[in-house]
Amino acid sequence: MLVDSVPEQCAETAPAPPNRQAIRVVGLFAAVAVLALVAVASIAVGAKELAVGQVWHGLFEDSGTYADVVVDERLSRTVLGLLVGAALGLSGAVLQALTRNPLADPGLLGINAGASAAVVTAITYFGVTSLTGYVWFAFFGAAAVGALVWFLGGSRGATPVRLALAGTAISAALYGYLQAVMIMDEAALSRMRFWTVGSLSSATDEIIWQVLPFLAVGTFLAFALARPLNAVAMGDDTAKALGANLKRTRALSMLAATVLCGAATAACGPIVFVGLMVPHVVRSFTGPDLRWIMPYAALLSPVLLLGSDVIGRVVARPSEVQVGIITAIIGGPVFIFLVRRRRTAQL
After folding, report:
1. Which residue of 31, 84, 110, 159 lies most exposed, with the fewest beta carbons within 10 A?
2. Distant-in-sequence, close-in-space partners of 57: CB < 8 Å, separation ≥ 6
3. What is the DSSP letter of 316?
4. Are 266 and 208 in contact (CB under 8 A)?
5. pLDDT in tens, 91-107
6. What global pTM score does this model have?
7. Residue 299 has pLDDT above 80, yes or no
8. What is the torsion angle, in degrees rounded to the nearest 10, for the CA atoms of residue 335, residue 271, residue 26 and residue 103?
9. Which residues fall within 8 angstroms of residue 288, CB to CB, at 6 or more apart?
10. What is the rounded average pLDDT of the residues 153-181?
């Protein structure tokens, strides 16, 4: 098996009262309904607004009209937003449990920085200009940084603090490299200015199929790790007493977060705050049990991402504001609010 089976009476959180359990289930259905509405809005709203009838026609009776072509393009954008949003939410939930830091996000381990640095290198030194070429360099950069953080964090002896420190140090170094290269190469700066803030505007079916296998593997790993991560969140000594294999759980958690965040970043660039905000907010009403946090995060993170994308298309018509900018504008105040709500000792 990939993960240890920790005794239920110890590793899992105490069963919720029946009424709270029912509320959680109802909440999941409500989250699915909200996600469906936001997905429809993502297809219908843009530089050209479409009626629900036109959206329906474009989805199920495509006849090649202008509205049908627009629906087809927005459908790819929406599907990529659903996949990337879920990946960022799940990777954030895994990293917050792994580091025992409720304000951790995928950028904490330098994965975003690794993907960005790899793309800048590909543009500047290898002449890569296509988005499909960026995907593989970005994923390689994210995976390489994930492996390096694991090694510098102590490998089999890795601890949450060591992993966070290693990720922070590597992120600082890579962002310095990224800025230096972009300043010295104006062509690279011009080509990178949209990718570095995160965008769904270049979504295609080809990109979706390229990253889908990685997202599927990462999602499976994340959900499989929910139970052992519940034990790890209680502290190393407690987790060991419960029979959890800390080394294997941490190694697989790093792998899941790297695959999820790496594939998401490769597909549409680094998007901040989604992996931080949603798992943290979800935890406030689900409790600490990752078996509930992960499904909610996988549903509500795309709501935030697609909702931000719709806002970006509306506020600057006929142009658009990149989704990474909108999530940063929304996430900054929310992050400050979350930090102020908690005592420093609790962080």
Report:
1. 159
2. 63, 67, 68, 71
3. T
4. no
5. 999 988 887 777 777 77
6. 0.84
7. yes
8. -30
9. 13, 230, 233
10. 79
Give CB contacts under 8 A, 24+ apart, made by 169-178.
170/110, 170/113, 170/114, 170/145, 171/107, 171/110, 171/112, 171/113, 174/110, 174/113, 174/114, 174/116, 174/117, 174/145, 175/113, 175/116, 175/117, 177/117, 177/120, 178/113, 178/116, 178/117, 178/120
Distances in whole angstroms, Cα of residue 258 to Cα of each of 65, 123, 126, 202: 41, 23, 24, 23
CA 100 to centroid of chain Cα atoms: 18
Tokens of 237: 């000594």
Using CA atoms in the order 296, 243, 251, 101, what is the torsion angle rounded to 10 degrees? 50
Give, in degrees to the nearest 5, the angle at Cα 103 between 179 and 242: 125
Q: Are 211 and 263 in contact (CB under 8 A)?
A: yes
- What pLDDT is attached to residue 87? 95
Segment 209-267, tens digit of pLDDT:
988 999 999 999 999 999 999 888 777 777 777 777 888 888 898 889 888 988 888 88
More confident site: 331 or 173: 173
